[in-house]
Specification:
This protein is an all-alpha fold and 291 residues long. Helices cover 80% and strands 0% of the residues. The protein has 14 helices and no strands. The termini are far apart. The mean pLDDT is 84.
Amino acid sequence: MAHETHASPATKVRSVVTEHRWARWTLIVASLVFLTLILILPLTAVFVEALRKGPTAFFTALQDAETFSAIRLTLIVAGISVPLNVVFGVAAAWAIAKFEFKGKAFLTTLIDLPFSVSPVISGLVFVLLLGANTYLGQWLSAHSIKILFAVPGLILATMFVTFPFVARELIPLMQEQGTGDEEAAISLGASGWQTFWHVTLPNIKWGLLYGVLLCNARAMGEFGAVSVVSGHIRGQTNTMPLQVEILYNEYNFTGAFAVATLLALLALVTLVLKTLLEMRYSDEIAASRRH
């Protein structure tokens, strides 16, 4: 009687991975073609158009007063909204991951809300809330407080669309780590602040940096929400993405693509830093498992 030979699970896995080489190469080529058409060619076109008239025209376009104001305003908005979102993100992640309370699921849902709402709607919410015809808007106007069509409105809109990034990076990380380290620190006499500063923060540092990186990239590149609340006031409320639109609509292609190159460089730097953080975080996890 012939004995049947059964392949081990490992052998089956290897055979699935190694057979049909043509299928693997087809997927690789298709992915490369897709990335070239969707990512590489558009980015290349931005840099080519920005430098079409030479480096002198490129740097002259960046030195334009309105363009410089847009760059400065973008840095201001990001410089204020990102730290505030870091504080909120860390607090929300700590509360959700470390404690049990009523409304926890609702809070988690609210954190995800900007991901499911169009940025234009996000900006429109503030117009409907703080507009001149609203009760709150009239009160602000009576007290000479200007939020819409001013820097505070840009900051609020940017914060709304970017606040999930830090929290969403930290929540699963802190849930995976559990509360053992914090409980041990408290049992040894550490205060709540000491526990956070010396135990919790070192454990989440790479996830926190990753969230800050994504939050900052989105804050500088946000268009829809800030477009609604900015009023497009030249030299005052136009950020870099809005300035690109204005210059392009005025057929100032060199200026538009020059500003666009700054945003593209930001995206590339973000990608490089993201990769380095992932590598560092993976190395740290591997080292901790070895020990």
